[in-house]
Amino acid sequence: MPTDTVWMTMQEIADMYNVFGCYVRKAVKAVFKDGILKEQGVRRHVRKNDRISYDVYSLELVIAVAFRIDSIESRAFREF
Length: 80
Hints:
By secondary structure, the protein is of the alpha+beta class. It has helices at about 10-15, 20-35, 40, 60-65, 70-80; strands spanning about 5-10, 45, 55-60. Strands 1-3-2 form a 3-stranded antiparallel sheet. The protein starts with 6 loop residues before the first strand and ends with a helix.
C-alpha cells in the first residue's frame, strides 16, 4: 500500500476535473480566503531538474477544490 502523499499542480487538478485552470485557481483562492485550509500546510514550491519551479498542492486541497467545482469528474470524485 503506497504511503506517499499526493501532490498535484493546478494544471493537473484542472485536467483531473476536466475544467480550465482559471476555475481551479478561483476555487483554491476561495478555500484559503474562507479559512477552510491554511496555505502553508497544503502548498509547496518545488524545483525540478529542469530548473523550472512549480507550486504543488496536497490531496487535502484537491478534495476541497472538488467541492467548489461543478463538473462530472468532480462529482464522481466527491462520490468516491
